[in-house]
């Protein structure tokens, strides 16, 4: 396995989606590079094999006929990364697969976490599931709890985590066998198995696997073996990925090896895994292969760009044709253990690589005054305009038009016959057409070069956003990094990206164009082993934890020894996956090694024989989140060992030293920022060590083009790498007048601030609601309190915080001082409902007496007191019954956290009859501190933006961005008005709908086509109700903003400009504008959905979705749990409604079944779709779900739901969706309907069954259901 000193050929290959790169070390010591198309069936069957054949033929001088098996006797090893599995996943071309899942959970993976990936996409489009058939295994295992009062079967055993489980229902093997035989008869030969709690109790999955293999299934992936981590949904996805892709990988590997004599029997063939380690080909599996290619690039730059002496961290910047991958290396590889790829959540160790849909092939658009790059891509076919295949205008075309890509230095592989050069003339013609569109809209006179430069700048900014998330979002300064650039397109943009991030150094490796392949040559062979755990990290348990680490270490070492490594070449890295008790954020921590420092036991740390894991966990937690939770137990979720077999690669390459100045081969005209520059062109293979190239310049290599911008200079290093020093202007001077390009850039920067705030909040919060369910939003506001941008987290928060900020400006005025932080939740102060706590912080800037901006965030707290646990009472009649209220509370005053006053306020509801103060004060305090930390991050980023551009410019572009959003909405309203006038003869729309209590919501929309404006008049809406479905004004504004954004159909800034063309009329003391004391908890989660239904009905946009959030709360004085449940989405003019998804005003995730049962005294008996509940139509509405909970001890249950009386409407002849139903089955056999709202005491053995509404259908149904499905 060790790459030795060239006795034979050694190959490292990256088989990408478009190109295959080959790095070969020959017996002579010579290095050969090759790049060829990954797919070229007319000339060869397999690109990696063809690359090997050509190099062998060229180096040996002997023929290696393409139609015969190759002699591999001169090959020592082949290392490969491949996108075969990734492409199969993206294109859904994997092995036909069936899924075995616990009965009652048939659609668990279809529902997933119930959120939709694109908040404003009414189709709720998501990739399809990977399985073709589902088998429900009759079996059930539950975790034993000390507080359980059910009579569970006595058959109990201890799981691998140390948890005790009860086998409630043994596996029904005869039924399973019959079901699997039917699946096998349909030609499905691959099986994924995911049973509840199999992470700790694996026996049932093992039996399923034995039966399946006995019956003849060719491949079986057990979730308990593929990745035995708690959370059945991602573990099930991972098992499905493994079953779906592993057969494809095996087929590819077998096809590859069949092209060689004796199938490469004596050649070490290794494949790169997603974690950056190599593994033998027979162990390469689908779930570990998703990042096989990109991982090679990360290893490549990590081992060539990072210096352990100066320890400057490196950002990897890999820009390809369709996307850009960014990652970070600081001497250690950052791994993540749960990622989403192609809509599938995968639990497996993977390098932490962020991808943004901006590459050379990203398409260019001009929309409503904004320059937009991507996310749509031209792909390899047809490719950009300059590829001569009729493609669209792209970033690559812009670079060609600016003179940064020179057609004469590109291979002639374009056009239909793939023999022509890049077509600059065609790209320029397409650019001129787009320029005319830009000038027509803006009334300006931009040149094509200025437009192209604008799009390049916007592309650069979009690529900076994930880098900021990777650095600033984790507490690092972007400027204190080196940018390591590789990939085919990255070197064209490196200087600009580095400058935008404050970096001063860019490194471009001599093999930058094939660095992923080179990374395979530098990579180590890795063996990993991981087991779940559920032990507290205590002195009493440390012996058991150490024993598991030792056993896993020996297992991994033995595997590497079997592969030919010597013991001294093997390094073992132990890890514990640790978290604080009752939190969700687990960190994978290596041990701290004392190294002569004071004994950690002196500080009370529990120390393992492998090192101090506790100190490591607390140090990392403090660094990432800003605090530690003193006195709280630490839980070990998983035990992991990573053993590395070092490859001992010592090959080096040195260039001769330069003796004079570099000589360009030619000069060209290249456009930078504002004009053309005479730009020298250098060939990299003609440059020597020490040569310095002053910008502007272009340096061309066989595999990439390096653009050295004005004010920068590039130096060739001893090993042939290029180091660019980037100048950093102290402050960029820009005008205050509108510039369309800068408008797009500032739109990105403002949104990036809100996004970074959200990342900090999610990371630093400890509650499930914020950290896991993502029930929060972050936003930036101008000095007038007007919304500048709102990161699209939860729709019901959109725009609502503007009213909260402006209320505080009026209420507190000049008493808003530096060091103050304001807390508010009252509906009269712009609040939505009381559990949503809004934290507002002013942004002061030196020399300015008043706030120059505001930052704020809103997060849902699990409990803030009131008459029921969870602060979501079903029958509240006054806001005082719903929990603690804050009108204008200074949470921090003059920099001091007001904990005593805050605690008193949170406990104040206990003074009322039948009410309680907060039931979880500790989490309230921790989450509020996290909200403060998120605002502090926003303040830091706003100040950095002002430092760079100046206050006047930043505030000017704040106004420009707001007016741009207004423009987009006016364009929409003009179109709607024209359409309404044509169809109805008048520019007026009307609609109404009812709440379940009969209250009407009425809407008349009066459109003015010439202005592009509208009056949303809710006159006629029912009175304020005695219950809690009253909706504060802010909630209605959020619903309107959400609807407008959905109807615009493309990205626009979410700010106060969106509502500028809209006047909203809300009758006083109505359901949508209640009095100050009205109960409102249901208005936020229920009435908001009905407002959306009425708006979309008036505009004829789509049929009604489930119109409800299905709020379920249970608890007592010691615990509280809150969830919202998915339902059916409404169908539209050309789409079927999605089933089992959250719609419209919410997008919160649902707690994984295993986490739910581990933490709370309930058993989830059923969670799946209810077929047929979606309304029929030419396009069917989505189906609702069935969710059934068994209670294990006495609790108080509250339900807040809707659409139990009035069904979700259909449109254009489509039928309504089914109404929802809430039923309680008492242990004594009695069954009752709970209605829309209920608060009831439940006992052990009682079962709640919630059936959520379906979505409405669209269009007149065809004669048969089959016809409708085909349509």
From TrEMBL:
One of its GO terms (molecular function) is hydrolase activity. Residues 544-715 form the Acetophenone carboxylase-like C-terminal domain. This is Putative oxoprolinase. Pfam families: Hydant_A_C, Hydant_A_N, Hydantoinase_A, Hydantoinase_B. InterPro entries: ACX-like_C, Hydant_A_N, Hydantoinase_A, Hydantoinase_B, Oxoprolinase-like. Residues 235-528 form the Hydantoinase A/oxoprolinase domain. Belongs to the oxoprolinase family. Residues 739-1261 form the Hydantoinase B/oxoprolinase domain. Residues 11-215 form the Hydantoinase/oxoprolinase N-terminal domain.
């Amino acid at each position: 396995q060790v790459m030795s000193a060239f006795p034979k050929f050694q190959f490292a290959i990256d088989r990408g989606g478009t190109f295959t790169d080959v790095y070969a070390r020959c017996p002579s010591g010579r290095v050969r590079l090759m790049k060829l198309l990954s797919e070229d069936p007319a000339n060869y069957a397999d690109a990696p094999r063809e690359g090997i054949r050509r190099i062998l033929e060229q180096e040996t001088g002997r023929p290696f006929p393409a139609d015969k098996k190759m002699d591999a006797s001169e090959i020592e090893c082949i290392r490969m990364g491949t996108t075969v599995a990734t492409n199969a996943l993206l294109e859904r071309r994997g092995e036909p697969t069936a899924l075995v899942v616990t009965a009652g959970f048939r659609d668990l993976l279809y529902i997933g976490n119930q959120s939709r990936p694109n908040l404003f996409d009414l189709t709720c489009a998501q990739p399809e599931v990977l399985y073709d058939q589902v088998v429900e295994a009759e079996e059930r295992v539950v975790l034993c709890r000390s507080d359980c009062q059910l009579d569970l079967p006595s058959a109990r055993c201890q799981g691998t985590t140390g948890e005790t489980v009860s086998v409630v229902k043994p596996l029904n093997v005869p039924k399973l066998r019959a079901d699997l035989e039917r699946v096998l008869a349909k030609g499905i030969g691959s099986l994924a198995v995911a049973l509840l709690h199999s992470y700790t109790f694996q026996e049932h999955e093992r039996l399923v696997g034995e039966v399946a293999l006995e019956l003849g299934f060719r491949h079986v992936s057990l979730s308990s073996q593929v990745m035995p981590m708690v959370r059945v949904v991602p573990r099930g996805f991972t098992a499905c990925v493994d079953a779906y892709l592993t057969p494809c990988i095996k087929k590819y590997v077998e096809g590859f090896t069949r092209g060689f004599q004796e199938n490469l029997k004596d050649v070490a063939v290794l494949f790169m895994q997603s974690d950056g380690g190599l593994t033998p080909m027979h162990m390469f599996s689908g779930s570990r292969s998703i990042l096989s290619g990109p991982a090679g690039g990360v290893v490549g730059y990590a081992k060539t760009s990072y210096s352990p002496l100066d320890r400057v961290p490196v950002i990897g910047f890999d820009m390809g044709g369709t996307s850009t991958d960014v990652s970070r290396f600081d001497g250690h590889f950052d791994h993540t253990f749960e990622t989403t790829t192609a809509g599938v959540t995968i639990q497996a160790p993977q390098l932490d690589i962020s991808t943004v849909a901006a590459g050379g092939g990203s398409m260019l658009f001009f929309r409503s005054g904004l320059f937009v790059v991507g996310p749509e891509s031209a792909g390899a076919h047809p490719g950009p305009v300059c590829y001569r295949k009729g493609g669209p205008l792209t970033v690559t075309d812009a670079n060609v038009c600016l003179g940064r890509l020179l057609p004469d230095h590109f291979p002639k592989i374009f056009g239909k016959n793939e023999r022509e050069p890049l077509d600059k003339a065609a790209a320029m013609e397409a650019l001129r057409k787009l320029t005319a569109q830009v000038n027509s809209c803006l009334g300006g006179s931009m040149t094509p070069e200025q437009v192209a430069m604008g799009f390049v700048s916007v592309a650069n900014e979009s690529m900076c956003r994930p880098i900021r998330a990777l650095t600033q979002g984790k507490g690092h300064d972007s400027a204190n990094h080196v940018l390591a650039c590789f990939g085919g397109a990255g070197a064209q943009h490196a200087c600009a990206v580095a400058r935008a991030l404050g970096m001063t150094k860019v490194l471009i490796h001599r093999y930058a164009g094939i660095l992923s392949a080179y990374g395979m040559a530098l990579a180590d062979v890795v063996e990993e082993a991981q087991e779940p755990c559920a032990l507290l990290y205590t002195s009493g348990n440390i012996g058991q934890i150490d024993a598991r680490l030792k056993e896993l270490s020996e297992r991994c070492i033995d595997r590497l020894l079997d592969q030919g490594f010597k013991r001294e070449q093997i390094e073992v890295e132990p890890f514990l996956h640790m978290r604080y008790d009752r939190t969700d954020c687990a960190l994978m921590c290596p041990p701290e090694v004392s190294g002569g420092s004071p004994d950690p036991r002196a500080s009370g740390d529990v120390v393992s024989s492998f090192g101090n894991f506790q100190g490591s966990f607390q140090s990392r937690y403090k660094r990432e989140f800003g605090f530690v939770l003193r006195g709280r137990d630490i839980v070990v979720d998983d035990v992991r060992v990573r053993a590395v077999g070092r490859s001992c690669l010592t090959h080096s390459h040195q260039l001769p030293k330069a003796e004079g100045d570099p000589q360009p081969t030619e000069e060209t005209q290249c456009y930078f920022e504002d004009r053309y520059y005479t730009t020298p062109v250098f060939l990299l293979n003609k440059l020597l060590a020490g040569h310095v190239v002053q910008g502007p310049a272009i340096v061309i290599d066989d595999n990439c083009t390096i653009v050295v911008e004005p004010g920068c200079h590039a130096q060739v290093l001893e090993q042939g790498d290029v180091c660019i020093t980037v100048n950093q202007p102290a402050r960029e001077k820009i005008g205050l007048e509108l510039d369309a390009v800068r408008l797009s850039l500032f739109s990105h920067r403002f949104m990036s601030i809100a996004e970074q705030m959200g990342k900090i909040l999610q990371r630093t919060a400890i509650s499930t609601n914020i950290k896991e369910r993502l029930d929060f939003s972050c936003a930036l506001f101008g000095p007038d309190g007007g919304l500048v941008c709102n990161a699209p987290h939860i729709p019901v928060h959109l725009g609502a915080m503007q009213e909260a900020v402006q209320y505080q400006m009026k209420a507190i005025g000049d008493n808003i001082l530096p060091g103050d932080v304001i807390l508010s939740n009252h509906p009269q102060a712009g609040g939505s409902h009381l559990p949503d706590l809004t934290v507002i912080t002013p942004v002061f800037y030196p020399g300015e007496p008043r706030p120059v901006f505001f930052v704020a965030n809103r997060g849902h707290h699990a409990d803030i007191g009131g008459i029921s646990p969870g602060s979501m009472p079903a029958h509240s009649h006054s806001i005082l019954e719903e929990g603690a209220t804050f009108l204008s509370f200074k949470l921090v005053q003059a920099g001091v956290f007001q904990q005593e006053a805050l605690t008193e306020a949170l406990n104040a509801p206990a003074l009322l009859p039948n009410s309680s103060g907060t039931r979880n004060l500790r989490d309230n305090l921790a989450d509020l501190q996290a909200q403060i930390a998120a605002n502090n991050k926003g303040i830091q980023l706003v100040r950095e933006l002002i430092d760079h551009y100046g206050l006047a410019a930043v505030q000017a572009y704040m106004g420009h961005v707001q007016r741009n959003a207004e423009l987009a909405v006016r364009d929409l309203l003009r179109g709607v008005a024209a359409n309404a006038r044509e169809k109805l003869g008048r520019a007026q729309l009307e609609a109404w709908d009812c709440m379940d209590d009969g209250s009407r919501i009425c809407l008349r929309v009066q459109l003015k086509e010439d202005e592009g404006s509208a009056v949303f008049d809710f006159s006629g809406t029912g009175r304020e109700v005695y219950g809690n479905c009253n909706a504060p004004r802010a909630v209605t504004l959020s619903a309107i903003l959400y609807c407008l954004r959905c109807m615009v159909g493309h990205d626009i800034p979410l700010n106060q400009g969106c509502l500028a063309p809209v006047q909203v009329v809300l009758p006083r003391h109505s359901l949508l504008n209640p009095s100050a004391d009205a109960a409102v908890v249901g208005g936020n989660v229920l009435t908001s959905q009905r407002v959306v239904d009425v708006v979309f009905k008036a505009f004829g946009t789509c049929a009604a979705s489930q119109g409800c959030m299905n709020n379920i709360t249970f608890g007592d004085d010691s615990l509280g749990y809150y969830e919202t449940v998915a339902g059916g989405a409404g169908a539209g003019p050309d789409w079927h409604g999605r089933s089992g998804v959250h719609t419209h005003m919410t997008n919160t995730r649902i707690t994984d079944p295993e986490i739910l049962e581990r933490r709370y005294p309930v058993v989830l008996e059923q969670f799946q779709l209810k077929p047929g509940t979606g309304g029929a139509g030419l396009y069917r509405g989505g189906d609702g779900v069935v969710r059934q909970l068994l209670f294990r001890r006495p609790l108080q249950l509250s339900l807040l739901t809707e659409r139990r009386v009035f069904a979700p409407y259909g449109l254009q002849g489509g039928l309504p969706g089914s109404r929802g139903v809430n039923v309680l089955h008492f242990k004594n056999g009695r069954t009752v309907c709970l209605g829309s709202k209920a608060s009831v005491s439940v006992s052990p053995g009682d079962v709640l069954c919630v059936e959520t509404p379906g979505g409405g259908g669209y269009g007149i149904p065809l004669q048969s259901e089959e016809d409708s499905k085909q349509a």
